[in-house]
Amino acid sequence: MIKYIISGVLCLIALSSCNKILNVTSPNAVDNSTIFTSVNGLRNARIGMYSTLQDKNYYGGYFPLLSECYADNGTTGGYDVIDLNDIASRTVQTANLYTTGIYQAIYNSIYTANSIINNISKVPNLDPTEGSNILGEALFVRALGEFDLLRLYGEHWNKSSEYGISIVVTIGQPKVPIARSTVDASYKQIIADLQSAITSLNTFNGNQYISLSAAKALLARVDLYYGDYAHADSLATDVINDNNFALFGPGSVPQVYSSRLTPESVFELKFDLQNPSAYNTLTYVRTTALRTDVAFLASAGLNTFFQGRPGDVRGALVDFVNEDPSIMPDGRTQKYRGEQTKDNSGYVLRLAEVYLIRAEASGRSAGLPDLNTLRESRGLADLTGADVPDSTSFLNAVLDERRAELNFEGHRLFDLARTGNVGSILGAGVNPIMPIPQREIEGTNNIVKQNPGY
Amino acid sequence: MNRTVQFLAATAALMCCLLCTTVLFAQNQIVKGTIKDAEGKPVAGATLVIKGTKKGTNSGSDGTYSIVVGKGDEILEVSFVGYRSRLVEIKGRILLDIVLEEAKSQLSDVVVVGYGTQKKSDITGAISSVRNKEFKDQPVSNLAQSIQGKVAGILVTTPSGTPGAGLLVSVRGANNPLYVVDGVPMLSESNSSLSTSYNTTGDEEGSGQNISSISDINPDDIESIEILKDASSASIYGARAANGVVLITTKRGKNGKTEFGFNSFAGIQNVSRKIPFLDSKGFVALEEDARKQDLIAYNQDPTPFNNLYPGFDPSVLTTPLPSSWNTGVNTNWENQIFRTAPISNLQLSARGGNEKTKFFLAGNYFDQQGIVIENFYKRASFRMNLDNKVNDRISLGANTSFTYGRNRRSFNDDTYTGIVTNALGASPLMPVYNADGSYADYTLYQASWLSDNPVKSAKEIKAFTTNYRFIGTVFADIQLLKSLKFRSSFTADYTNLIDNQFFDPITSDGAPVGGKAIEGTYRNLTWLNENILTYTNNFGKSSLSAVGGFTAQSSRYEKTAVKAQGFPEGSGLENISSASTVTSASAQNFGWGLASFLGRINYAYDEKYLFSLSARYDGSSRFDPSDRWGLFPAFSAGWVLSKEKFMEKSEFITNLKLRVSYGLTGDQEIGDFQFQRYWTPSRYDGNAGLRPTNIGNPGLTWQRNKMFNIGADFEIQHGKLSGSLEFFRGDRTKLLANAVLPATSGFASYTTNAGDIENKGVEFSLMAYPVKNPHFSWAISFNMSYIQDKIKSLYSDNELIFAYADLFPTHILKVGQAVGSFWGYKYLGVDPKTGNPSYSNDPQILGKATPDYFGGLTNDFKYRNFDLSISTQFSLGNKVYNLIRTTYQTLGYSPGGWDANNNLFQVYANNATIVNKRWEKPGDVTNIPRASLIFQNYNQQSSQFVEDASFFRIRTVNLGYTLRPKHPGLYNSLRLYLQVQNLWVLTKYYGFDPEVSSNGGSNPQTAGVDYAAYPQARTLTFGLNFNF
Question: How far apart are CA A393 and CA A387, in angstroms?
């Protein structure tokens, strides 16, 4: 009898304490279901969205640097890391961990943007102006991600290609594979997102945040890739006319990189000491660094390129002199100095690029003044019509200017690909795009198709 | 007279029977005598009962007894734990000395099972038991190390020789068992808030050295270790038992005179195997050969050179080597970072008590200096175990232990910027110090592999882990009824751990930021409450015992880290407040809870037919509230054939038991809160926000292990030969896996239950006493296991796994293969004409990290006062991916270490002497390609570096001499011994040791990778066991 009483009492104690023991809540995390139930939650998600862009694999370092070092601006160092060596030798394997990481990081940004886009209408007591601007920022992030995916993993130069991107605009069915859209459909999605972003964005919060001009500048870039030159021209003009942005003179060019959030930037991803980016540790490390310490080196070819451009103040941003012999004949970019703080920005959109977009979009005669505006601000003499007698030579001059201005900011490979120069400059047979990660092919049961050549 | 007695007693001992002095028998006579063992040592506490009566007594501490014998009392029954019971005919004698023979049979041994004990003869599950005498005195910090090679089915691997390091314990192919120390379940976790492994960009790379929380348990305090191997014995631990359970029982007080024990050893350790490296001359010669070979190749066909370096200038192959190649220095870097290091251990214990109160007290200090310079592990531990009998019904008790540990970590162990890693490959032409006494600047010398001067990083990166751990239990036993007992216990397990890391401004890690420091803390408090009812009764030939109860365990832990940089140069200040900038601060909290109901019924009929049924019902906070309870039942049965009529009389087979069991266990080690979809804090532009980090999976549940076991225990001639044979099949389903998600989901993977692994195996163990007499005895114990695991299904097949996240994939998960299968290109050898290597076109499976067969053989000899024990261990069929060899077999390669004038400054790394077997001229048949400066004549991702790591190891040799006092009472015994740990390894493996694992980690998916793990030591110790 005693046995039963004790058992009964024990069971009661047990049951009552169970819930207390088993309901453990995390003090470090917030449940998904509570995020979009208040304006504060939405604001937190907005900051988080910017934070996803800062991922080391995305604008925190690898995305821009990898594409540079696959192209002719850079090469790779490191401790004989196969996946890194494969970038420089342009023989990327489908399981390459860098291209895999970038692919995942970009979709994580898109997921965060989609969370905001899909849930913003549910947020109670949201000021319509603020809500509209946040929606615009999220649409921008989605478009930026989509476009970066298209540039790195899709045949962005060929509208009729079926090798576009997997377009995701919703959340909630994580395991359902999404097949790739055509390149044209991918562009249409990106353009539509940016057009919605342009109608939604209404506040300039500083160039560390997405603004109306940033959306216009990005759409101008997309239009240029897509071939809608007139539209690119007009959007670029809007951005150039925005008083928030201005080009520096030749003496101040290094400040674009040594200062933060200068008027040269249209959208600059800001980092700080507590939240550092990977640029410095990937490209400079320390004055006496060995080749093995530096993952992404500036190629000897970039040195030769600047040697042919006397007076170009941007040449001084590449260090080919005071380096350890093991780095030679290659060098290091000095755009990401600051070994102490490592708060180097991610340069998503700069005014100089907008000038170059307009120059290219508007063609030889109308574009030359834009090219010259930029050259003057970089310590170079104007080009005359005689220097660029035809549209081909003008396009080459623009491409050279883009290389001089935007090296190590993640443009070179895409410029070569969209102008059909990969074969002639990087070598015959070089694939202009990266493979879709092996994980994705397997994780989707081949519903996502691999790129040709991999 | 006295002499006669002595003489006669000795004779008696020799003959293993008794003789007597002939004295007449009288009624109600007092019979006196001494009980001794075969060696003549008095046996205290032995029980004497006059057969057929309730009259009895115990022998005293000097072995003497006296008992009143009445008329008709003819036979004395004498018994004592660990000795064979015997019946002695009184035959009217009044002086009766009795010799007890040590039991060879283990049938009456009491074995600790979950929530109770059982006699070995009654056990129906697969349980292995290791006693203190089998592992004591070993110079190891972790108890698991002391059972290496001693238990069938248990594979203990030392992934790193770091003092205090965690070990990889695999029970029947499943890693990381649950440890239960005196009833308190705990996991072997790496209790450190910080990584000690960073890559060159300062990011954490792997978990670094694993300091095991199990090292907090002092091996000297342990009485016995029981390993619950099959599901039927382990399922009483339900949701945490899928990987087996290791029960650790510490020593308790004894009734009788207080015994003091002083155990101590001191010794030296050094690296058991070094890798032979080229000296300066050999290094230069290799480089000259590399250039010579390249020049020959260039003259035959310059195309490959121009493809690699457009406009290649062959003068780099001919310009004389610059003066830096002729420094006159010849540094052996292994000798610079390794040392002969002392190890010592002091243990003082007291054990005693009376009928009412018993106690065990112990204090221990263990000091192990690392064989890598500067590195050490020190541990001080204290234990008090108390039992008190309040009255006939109630008794109380407490177990408390406190441990202090301090570890100077060896930095970046087993990763590519570590001390050992840098030393393997450093140029012999580089001195350690400049003439002015400063550290030589590694950038000025020939090996670009280095990330720092190895001696500098060993001395100037100061990483300490200090650990305080308290485990305390109080319990009360209440005898509710004659056959019903209730025990309630309450335990607190508290850990406070502090990490300090300081990178001096002169180290390459600290240089760019003016020195940096990281401070971290880890605090954990685990509560456990257990309430257990135990019922035992006999009904005629049936005996029944039942256990039922409720337990609740709850754990909270907190990890903090503060990083700072910029230290006043030359000030010697290292504390974080002297830094110019704090760069980050973090604090994270975690927790889990587990509530459980458990029960077990054992039924035996006539000690012949044994049945056991058990179940545990666990609720875990780690799963979604809608589905967080799980039932883990098990059943087992045994049939003691030797008690059947047809075998009962056999004097040859004295015990034969067949066992069968089947049951289900679970594994919930998935991390906290994984079922939730959650967002975590993030920052942008000085604002705090939230970003999505976990996609969550509300359907997450336990990993399950269904195990079927058939076993047989046998004993021949009362234990002259005994052993058991087990066959098992484990079906591990619903494996917790990081399943690949389409990236379009926004996440790379999510934790899910997918996949199925089948473990099959045979275990065999044998104990034999080929010779056993009072002066000489020889005991053999042998065990061998064959385990095969095979992946039956996966969430996504062919998933490539990276042992190091920023290197290439090293492993693959593939259906039909073992977990931990290596992946890469097959090396096809060297073309005898050109000396160039070739590889398969496609990557393939290159072997696996787990052995097919493993086991051990221990021989114990005793001759008079000498004893000798030799333990060996073997492993067959396992391979190791020798990643660090991709540094020391680079054959003179350099990725562009020459200047504009084609002076060769640097190559990749110095090489081991194995490259002396390289191809040198056409016709050479060898496995090592030709040397080359320009071409990489090796492929890291190939079977060139996947080596056979089968081994045979002489693990322990212990030679002792025991002194006993002429006059009892002075002291009990003094044993002096000499021991060598890890005496010798026979293996084809080229690295330091065939026992390694990447990142010091316990992940079976990336097992068996050697990235210059801290080598294992050979330890020579001299010790003493003094009992008084």
Answer: 8
Query: What are the tokens at A241?
Result: 């006319």
Confidence of residue B22 (pLDDT cuts 50, 70, 90): very low
Residue A215 forms part of a structural domain: yes
Q: What is the ipTM of this complex?
A: 0.90
Please report residues of B whose CB lies closer than 8 A to that of A437.
Answer: 743
Interface test mutation site (partner B, options A1, A6, A13, A24, max chain B beta carbons within 10 A): A24
pLDDT in tens, A262-306: 999 999 999 998 889 999 999 998 888 888 889 999 999 999 999
Q: In which band, very low, low, confident or very high, does the pLDDT at B648 lie, cut at 50, 70 and 90?
A: confident
The rounded distance, in Å, linking the Cα atoms of A200 and B356 is 83
Q: In the predicted model, what is the mean pLDDT of residues B1009-1025?
A: 90
Angle formed by the axes of helices A229-240 and A351-377, to 10°? 70
Chain B residues within an 8 Å CB radius of A28: 588-590, 680-681
Which contiguous run of DSSP H or E holds residue B442?
none
Residue A169 at interface with chain B, using a CB cutoff of 8 Å? no
What is the rounded CA–CA span in Å between residue A410 and residue A368? Answer: 24
Residue of A327 and B912 predicted with greater confidence: B912
Of B628, B744, B936, the CB nearest to A22: B628
Tell me if A442 and B750 make a contact (CB, 8 A cut-off): no
- Which range of residues forms the domain containing residue A403? 37-274+344-420
Please tell me the distance in Å from B199's CA to the nearest CA on chain A.
10
Please give the share of chain A, as a percent, with pLDDT higher than 90: 79
**Phi, then psi, of A304 in degrees rounded to 5:** -55, -40
B4 — contact with chain A (CB < 8 Å)? no
How many structural domains does chain A have?
1
Distance from CA of B210 to the nearest CA of A (A): 24
Residue of A nearest to B625 (CA): A23
Of A33, A281, A325, the CB nearest to B906: A325
Kindly report the nearest CA distance between residue A30 and chain B, in angstroms: 5
Question: Do the domain assignments include residue A135?
Answer: yes
Best of B534, B617, B690, B908 to disrupt the A interface (most A CBs within 10 Å) is B690
In a mutagenesis test of the A interface, which of B684, B687, B888 is the best target, namely the one with the most A β-carbons within 10 Å? B684
Of the candidates B55, B100, B127, the residue with the CA atom closest to the CA atom of residue B636: B127
| DSSP secondary structure letter of residue B138 | -
- pLDDT per residue over B572-581, tens digit each? 888 888 888 8
CATH number reported for the structural domain that contains residue A136 in this entry: 1.25.40.390
What is the model's pLDDT at position B508?
83
Q: What is the DSSP string of B353-406?
A: E-SSEEEEEEEEEEEEE-SBTT-EEEEEEEEEEEEEE-SSSEEEEEEEEEEEEE
Residues B416, A79: C-beta atoms closer than 8 Å? yes
Residues of A in contact with B202 (CB under 8 A): 281
- Other CB atoms within 10 A of residue B39 CB: 16
A311 part of a folded domain: no
Confidence class of residue A214 from pLDDT cuts 50, 70 and 90?
A: very high
The structural domains of chain B, ordered by start, are: 2-100 (2.60.40.1120), 143-272+340-417+452-884+947-1027 (2.40.170.20)
Q: By CA distance, what is B450's nearest residue in A?
A: A292
Q: Tell me the pLDDT tens digit for each residue of A178-204.
A: 999 999 999 999 999 999 999 999 999
- Asked whether residue A245 is assigned to any structural domain, the reply reads yes
Which B residues, 686 through 745, put their C-beta within 8 Å of a C-beta on chain A? 686-696, 740-745
3-state SS assignment for residue B522: strand
B778, B860 in Cβ contact below 8 A?
yes
Q: Is the pTM of this model over 0.90?
A: no
Asked whether the beta carbons of residue A24 and residue B593 sit closer than 8 angstroms, the reply is: yes
